[in-house]
Design brief:
By secondary structure, the protein is α/β, with parallel strands linked by helices. The chain is 34% helix and 26% strand. Strands 7, 8, 9, 10, 11, 12 and 13 form a seven-stranded mixed beta sheet that branches. Strands 3-2-1-4-5-6 form a six-stranded parallel beta sheet, sandwiched between helices. It has a four-stranded antiparallel beta sheet with strand order 15-16-14-17. Helix 1 packs across helix 11 and helix 5 packs parallel to helix 9.
Length: 395
Amino acid sequence: MKKEIKIGLFGFGSVGRGLYDVLGAVEGKDITIRRICVRDLSKDRGVSAEFTDQPDRIFEDPEINMIVELIDDAEAAYYIVRRALEAHLPVVSGNKKMLAYHLPELIELGKQTATPFLYDASACGSIPVIRNLEEYYDNDLLVSVKGILNGSSNFVLSKIFNENMTYDKALRLAQELGFAESDPSLDFDGWDSLFKLVILTIHAFGIYVAPEKIFRYGISTMNEADIRFASEKQRRIKLVGHVEKKNDGGVYLWVVPQLISRDKYIYSVEDEFNGVVIKGRYYYKQFMFGRGAGGHPTGAAVLSDITACKYDYRYEYKRMNSGLDIRHTDDVCHRIYFRYRTEEDRNLLKFQLIREQYTSGEWNYVVGDVCLSDLVAVKDSLAGRDIFIAAYPWN
């Protein structure tokens, strides 16, 4: 494509502004933002740039030769990305929810139009996980991808376990610092991690699994009893996204709090940082670490995508085209910690084996083996209850 890049930018929130600042710090003028589309033109953005609230002003500008989409509206983001690909305009996207629901369709459209379409910044902020999975782990040796995929929830958990903050106080601090939204459910109920896991799974194993098919449980119901249990076991609670291939070729995914032991890489991942462990046969484990929240780190990741697009880099989706028999499965069991209050709550989970249990007048818990398929079967019944679920790995 043309050496000089003139960007049509959609969105000027934390990441959009972060990209603007990062570009301002880069030497050379071969990448510039020509026009920015926002919803509210009356808002003072504090920068000297050309703003519009009309998408057509960007798509019909003959000088714009790349689209960058950084908005929080998933359906609007889908419209923007699809329109860009149909117009043969290279496009960079950061909307993980949109990608999690529409990625197979957009991959096919990108192939049909032979147009670069990149989104490394949508998963794990500043960590280039997607491109590494594409280029380095593009073989059948990969076993699992597991880690902290959401910086906001990790910030709160770090404050709780390192500084003895209450959940509410840590959440308020995260909101004050811009790491959490006023409505924190996207981060703390596991949705953000779920969307990222869907995206990573396509590049890791070449299979698309719709978000509604995956078990997801967050940390918003965690209480002092759960924190005390973790501390007594010399573990920390981390919200973890996990995809793994079994020996029979089945791939399972889940997003769930995990009781992490001290010898694990992600035990020491603190604050708004993300940490991803990639495991394979023969090379065992490799660890990637970086900031997972904040406008500037994510803006820098967006710039990396822009630069890659400039040189006509494209994802090849090698695992999707490998011809291997990869399928989604929930046929796996794990050791689970389950804190509950009533017998009705207790009966929600079908334990294959009970290894430890405790009852009192205030709270109760069970530690035992539960099949992922049974968790998926009851996932819609778990919301709104005074319970907490966490995976409890053996090591």
